[in-house]
Amino acid sequence: MCGRYLVDDEVYADMWMLLNSLRSDPGAVSSATQGATQSVVSGTVPGMAPGTASGVVPGAVPGLTPGAASGTASYLAKGEVFPSNIAPVFTKSGAEAVKWGFPHWKNASVIINARAETALEKNMFKKPLLERRCVIPSSGFYEWSRAGSGKKKDKFLLRHPGERVLYMAGMINTFRDATGSTYSAFVILTTAANESVAAIHDRMPVILAPDERDRWLSDDDFMEHALHRPGPELESELST
Question: How far apart are CA 129 and CA 124, in angstroms?
Answer without folding.
Answer: 9
